[in-house]
Amino acid sequence: MRIGLIGTGRIGSFHAAALARNQDAGSLLLADADPARAARLADRLGATAAPSVEQVFTWGVDAVVVSCATEGHAELVVRAVRGGLPVFCEKPLATDLGRSLAVLREVSARGGVLQVGFMRRFDAGYRTARELVRSGALGRLHTVRTMTADPAPPPAEYLRTSGGLFRDCLVHDFDMVRWVTGHEVTEVYAAGSDAGAVRFRETGDIDTGAALLLLDDGTLVTSTGTRCNGAGYDVRMELAGELDQVSAGLDDRTPIASTEPQGPPPASKPWTGFLERFAPAYEAELAAFVRLVRGEGANPCDGREALAALRVAEACELSRREGRRVRLTELPDLPDLPDLPGG
């Protein structure tokens, strides 16, 4: 097997290293808008560097991993499926719902295989939480609380193309709400603040946001996110039922301190970022894609799954901007398409 990986920045380098360690992945062909960067990574990993992205599609590969800047995702995914290549794409497919729908229509029309990168589905804590909820161990679920807190704001250049806090950051939380509970979000009410660094106001983004979600079984969900959590990287999901409650993401590296006299001590080495916190999950995610390409496993996160999380994020952004409750039925979906291949 030969896998072409496009985009050798921070996340692309991480994915390339994971694939290089995977004995079933075969060889790697790396490409980047900066050919020198791809060449340096190829030298470190014993891979082959392409002089441009074009060679990924002309030199012959069995699958494609898209990990470049967000604005390039849609075009590359479409090109891969038109060439009959299974493709893994880092989320999002696009920064808006319309382009994402267009990509998924193309995937369906071509019979393409697309896996989208929602790595928390492979995290041990979240997987255990899902098992407990689905088994009934918590009883009737009544409250879910999620949070994603980055230790420092990203640069303005990133914010300009990120799609905003709800689409770029909290979309992971929305995916987990659906995946863990097995229920759909029916309506949202969201708010945000841009009171932090001036770069948020300049780019029309927010540094902190909160959303109240209602699920189709009546469960209430609160999802909060911020780019300004100086204590460290904090990602958690708390699930409260009539019989018990649990938390994913709570460990001795969670960057929060108790004010109680007998409370646990603060983390001596708090999580610094998503690559450190979710490193095993990223590895497992790419291993699942390799199995998918080899025909040895089901698709753990196809285009419809990714679209469902994005629709919640879009509804939250609409709610924030218009200051009102938004029902998910207000947003377009893909009711006219058959199940996407590879699921």
From TrEMBL:
It holds the Pfam family GFO_IDH_MocA. Residues 1-118 form the Gfo/Idh/MocA-like oxidoreductase N-terminal domain. Gene3D superfamilies: Dihydrodipicolinate Reductase, domain 2, NAD(P)-binding Rossmann-like Domain. Residues 252-272 are annotated as: Disordered. InterPro entries: Gfo/Idh/MocA-like_OxRdtase_N (IPR000683), GFO_IDH_MocA-like_dom (IPR055170), NAD(P)-bd_dom_sf (IPR036291). Keywords: Oxidoreductase. Transmembrane segments: none annotated. Belongs to the Gfo/Idh/MocA family. This is Gfo/Idh/MocA family oxidoreductase. It comes from Streptomyces goshikiensis.
